[in-house]
Specification:
homodimer, 144 residues, 72% helix, DNA-binding
DNA sequence: CAGCATCCACATTGATACTG
DNA sequence: CAGTATCAATGTGGATGCTG
């Protein structure tokens, strides 16, 4: 019965920790803001307010669905404001809040890091992939 | 023929931009590093080198699959080193590189932002969700 | 101990068509 | 113009079993 108990205990532990992580709000938030579109929208809106169609053109790879969805999420999280102007046709403007701008500062830094270190990363990848080819040698070494 | 041409042009534009985005290496990199597990692994390894089993225990919610996969990605990108010690049983240590540590500095800032602003975000969400309930009024206003 | 291979469930995303 | 609704494809991650 020992083994089945061990398995049960493992499962219990994992379940506990999952609950802990699911609770952890800062982690959820981190996951949200590091989403692909959020990042792009932050920098698109960094220069000031933009209309829906402007955003759509600024980030042409985004579908209406994801654009709307991301904007709604950001609005809900207080990162931007959505202003509807009653006219024909309707006009909707999006603008970063103070909170949104403060986040953008950080994300810009991360983006800059990515741009600055791209070459390092790509070199590392090339090196890694080449090493993969000569793996047999590593295997020999491992056998002493 | 005007409409079909417009559609074709749109598609062409989108295709062009997609190619542009797919090329954009800093964006790819950004997507990679903002992955859930990468973030956790960075902070787990911030204190120094760790063994595979240590990491597994430090981040209990990660499956072996994702742990291994994430570590390989980070190794490939030059964010950490993987050291195999031939012994029985085998021992594998992971340690952040200088590049990895420099990234961790930024990600820690973002993490801190998330922790500091959690309350703001949650308040905003509550406000948004409450406003949703009284949406009928907004609809009336919109009709002037 | 530190993985890899396989299968599978689910969430995310995209394409398409339609609307106030 | 600024969306909504729906369906299909894709990807991501987890569970399981096996290995050097």
């Amino acid at each position: 019965m020992a083994t089945s108990t061990a398995a049960a205990r493992r499962e219990q532990e994992r379940s506990d920790y999952n609950a802990y992580l699911a609770e952890c709000p800062s982690h959820n938030l981190l996951a949200q803001i590091s989403s692909k579109w959020i990042t792009l929208l932050l920098s698109a809106l960094a220069g000031g307010s933009m209309r829906y169609s402007n955003l759509s053109r600024a980030i042409p790879s985004v579908s209406q669905k994801m654009l709307t969805q991301s904007l709604r999420t950001m609005e809900r999280d207080g990162l931007l404001t959505r202003t509807v102007t009653a006219a024909v046709p309707v006009r909707v403007d999006y603008e970063l809040t103070t909170l949104g701008r403060s986040l953008n500062v950080l994300m810009t830094q991360v983006k800059n890091w990515a741009e600055s270190n791209m070459d390092n990363v790509y070199d590392a990848r090339r090196g890694y992939d080449e090493r993969e080819v000569e793996d047999p040698i590593a295997a020999l070494n491992r056998r002493g």
